[in-house]
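User: For documentation purposes, I need each entry recorded in a consistent format: the amino acid sequence on its own, followed directly by the corresponding structure tokens. There are two entries in this batch. Please keep commentary to a minimum and don't merge the entries.

Assistant: Recorded as requested. Entry 1:
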Amino acid sequence: MESLLRVCAVVVPALPESVSSLRRLVRREAKRWLLSGEAQDALQLVVSELAGNVVLHSGSPYVALLLRVEMGVLTVKIRDGGRWGGRSAVVKREDGDCCGRGLTLVGAVVSRFAVVRTPGGTEVVAELDLPATVVPARRQTEECLELTPA
């Protein structure tokens, strides 16, 4: 069975206003791709949290986003070119803390995710299994490519 391939890629400056721009982009693409309301909400949360982490913590000059739907799986990749410092990946938080739960939220709404740190930056890959109703039986490619100078 062939599947519908949908791809969207964008690179934006790592600025706070870029997070809301990415949120609008993924909302538009998710509607265009006919994703369920639940998948749209999950996608917006994942992109907001991951892009927000890049802006707040990485020191990267850019945020690169790749969305891909194929074979019933929505894949979100966020890449940066920053340095996250020597912090431990797991930090104990108290209930009263106002931040630090982003990756926990992401993990709660996706099927799988991984964080890969390299000397050149970090890439987070999150996958969300979609219902079979959004996987058409014919092959078609839709692409969205937007580049914003840093």
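Entry 2:
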Amino acid sequence: MTLSTNCIGAAPTPFTAERINGLSIKKATPFHARKLVDFFRRFEETSFCDWQDEALLKGLLATEHTYCYVAENPTGTIVGAVAGGLMGTRGTINHMAVAPDYRQSRIGTSLANSILSDFRQHGIRRVFLFVEDNNPNALNFWQKQGFAQTRGEITCEVDL
């Protein structure tokens, strides 16, 4: 299922690392690549493919068109993350997960707000993402963030 939102809102403000519930929310760097791969692979619902490895993620995190945020606990363990980027004139959120022990604590909302702020700063006015049909919790979360199911589109993809 594809969800989309108009990314129009108040004037953007530059992101600065924030703290929420004792966690640090900050932009990911290539340094986080290994931890991100390990983190996203823990969640089947993120659809993180086998070919998405540390080298690929390091390269993507070094570009200006990739937006990624992590929530780390005081020991530096990633407990939440969101990753996306620019696709032409639209933004895309490719992966998001929050560790079960940290759900329902506004970390997902903070991560979503961080990446949406980046999109706004870069003039992006529409963002899309995919939610698996059998993941009603994710669908509910993204609808609360202002996303709505896309009508009249069929998603097609191929692994190269």
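Summary note for entry 2:
The chain has a mean pLDDT of 86.
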